[in-house]
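agent> call fold_tool(seq_1)
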Amino acid sequence: MATMTMIQALRSAMDVMLARDPNVIVYGQDVGYFGGVFRCTEGLQARHGRTRVFDAPISEGGIVGTAIGMAAYGLRPVVEVQFADYFYPASDQIVSEAARLRYRSVGDFTAPITIRMPCGGGIYGGQTHSQSPEALFTHVCGLRTVMPSNPYDAKGLLIAAIECDDPVIFLEPKRLYNGPFDGHHDRPLVPWSGRPESEVPEGHYTVPLTSAAVRRAGSAVSVLAYGTMVHVSIAAAEESGIDAEVIDLRSLWPLDLDTLVESVKKTGRCVIVHEATRTSGFGAELAALMVEHCFYQLEAPIERVTGWDTPYPHALEWAYFPGPARIAAALRRVMEP
């Protein structure tokens, strides 16, 4: 089985679907000839042609708007917004058109589009290249929101997203493109090769869009995380010596609520981790759900470890980034008698 980085796995997913379905097209800013700013689409134009993989003007609203029109007429566009920070000009198209098309047409039309967006920090990108806007999408009825944490899931989830008849917001933690990241920025980079999650089948397969995964089994406390924070949470559990169970949401919405509830009921404690700002972040929704479904099993208040309620800083990136030390401190707090 091939060993892939997340970049290669995403490219493989698009390659498979372009070959498999003539209605799939890929376009966005610099994704054609240049192969994408992170090279996720490198070589796809040469392989599938300029009518299937092509560049678009720097107009996020135009990119998403044309994708909705194409989707309504039977195509399956996979479009890239170069950084998640730049989706805001396309907000009206995403919220008012793509998310509502099935409902407002009483099922006559759907919007089977996949909007790929690199997200998150840890790359010294500053406030306009490091945002994690997932909560803005989970709030919108009619959208699916996905964030993989490893190459195997990235390919399987992307194929499932492309085949889905609903619009899918596909968020890609760019800090994980070339290797897992445990939050220790002062240590050497670790490649994906050698890790089981980098073993990616070359052909077609899917990972269900509504399935969470247990990344680290444990009995003392449940950690709910996604994206880069899955790896940071595992590092925090191992470094703190606390027997934490780490759950990777994978699909933020729809949510695999059963897996989360089963874990929290088992451990009686819950820590929620995400990189986005704290106030009204997706962690608040997760906390509310855990209280609603696990109230009588909870042995301690739920803790949230998140980014701060500020723009993402450049000079103080690692003070903002929820690292292993902050997560470990939260794990210790929920374990206090």
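agent> call fold_tool(seq_2)
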Amino acid sequence: MPAPEPTPDLPIAETLACPVPPEQRPLEQYRELQQSWFFTWPHASFKGLAVPLVRSWLIVLPLTMLVATGSVPLRHNLPRLVVAGAVAGLVVPLLMLLRQWLGWTNLQKRLMATAVDYEESGWYDGQVWEKPLAWREQDLLVATHEVKPVLERLQQAMAITAALMLVGTSLCQAL
């Protein structure tokens, strides 16, 4: 009986050149999100996320107040008008948080995956390439230590925004 051939320590994918275009690799996507002016807000700290959200709320607040004045019952009740306009203004920051959360969640899924989906020339030729072990380890480290804290900050911010909306809506009903 012949002896079995020794199996190499490295998977075949590690010995082959990477067919995934550089711009479609998960780590490159991480670098792009990290350098983007919009997606970098939650990356550094919670304050780095809160300041632009408050600014966006303050920018949209006059518009929501103007729209709220279109309601006859609110026009005659100033405190209720202010609260309704403020609550309506929270929709924009909440949508911004949702967009950021979707982008970072997609990145985390790609980093945690054992294979990379990519397209060489267009939408019709989707390919899958198994990540080498070294890539998987590096991607897992980035997903765990860089992306996970960002997602936690975004979830906290969304919870705070939703709570503010609920409190504001309750206050508006109480007035």
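agent> summarizing second result for user.
The CA atoms of residues 14 and 132 lie 5 Å apart. Residues 45-117+125-168 form one domain.
agent> awaiting next instruction.
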